[in-house]
Design a protein that fits this description.
With 440 residues, the protein is of the alpha/beta class. It is 41% helix and 11% strand.
Amino acid sequence: MPSPSRNGATKAGDWRNYERVLLPPVRDLHRFEVYVKHGGYEALRAVLTHSKKWAPDKVTEAVKASGLRGRGGAGFSTGLKWSFMPPVDPGTPRYIACNGDESEPGTFKDRQLMEYNPHLIFEGILIAARAMQIDATYLYIRGEYVDWIRHMEHELAKLYAEGYVGKRILGTDFSSEIIIHKGAGAYICGEETSLLESVEGKRAYPRIKPPFPAQKGLWGCPTTVNNVETLACAPLIINRGAEWFAGIGAEKHPGPVLYGLSGHVERPGVYEYPTGMLITDLIEEVAGGMRGGKKLKAIVPGGASVPVLRADMIDGVTMDTESLREAGSMMGTAGMLVMDEDTDMVKFLRRVTRFYHHESCGQCTPCREGTGWIENLVTRIDEGEGTLRDLDILMDLCDQMEGRTVCALADAAAWPVRNTIQRFREEFEAKCRQSIYAMA
């Protein structure tokens, strides 16, 4: 990881002075030679050569002390997750599944990291592998990311040639492999146990938990599943310290984060800043304000599955788990969808429900049937054939889906429906009253 001057930690309120570390302004940083020239793989060298300071358990403790949370959506403590791996059994392989299956609508930050700083991901994988004594890591990348896969494979080949991956890494007694696995286009593979099934060559049906992957993952062996951005933070923690990382952004959800801003803003894109930024700062200053000077109507803070927030609900709300929970939403992937005053919320919900119906794997009846019913009802309302009773049926369907399936896709499909109708009910009722079935 490039190591510019050791700047102090940056609080969210001081974001204008923030120094980028995930996507630093270094030309051609995606190339192995450039990455190494700017201090890359020094964290890995430290972990491998300073065995007393950076024994595997101490690496895990540092990650835990940093407060790093998963960047893939759930926001679980990364160090705690690593600590769930059982003691090493010489006869049992151990794996990491690195999740780059970025398929959530509104989320496009992982591909930016893979394109511009892939070696930070590789270094993070190897540090995690050392901490958990991993034999092999499967880097699972969304199948549609054809160019990114080719790019990652090219750089990984250099690592093997230079002795950074494989047998006796950097001349030490530590060996670990990295295998890039191409997805086949299914959104469900972003769910951790579906991803494991896919790597094993099976249909990507989510598994019942427990057992959790740390106990029974790939081929029945201990496995940790982490998002690519999550693992990319590991070299930063080793190079600069857990205290530095914990001092960035929100106190209970610290660190740098990649915000994906899209929708009706002047400057959509991926921006790296501390966690805990005000939503209003992200929209008005980072993204240049609302497109065409229009008024803000709603946002979805962290990918299509998290609850929508009205414009009057975001004053003082910051991009971290606690603040967003209090506001009635979630951090998710930090992929923010911004909608202006002209947005038809019924049409918005119709697109969301179509996506989840199409992407349901079909294993669980409440999800397989429920997503279809939801799409049909929302479509009927949008096309002027709905009734007020349909809104109650939609709410009942959400009740029948949430918490009744093997994985959380049914919940992810139900939350946008429930919250969009509750928070913009007048729009849905207006369409129902104008329908061909409305009573005179």
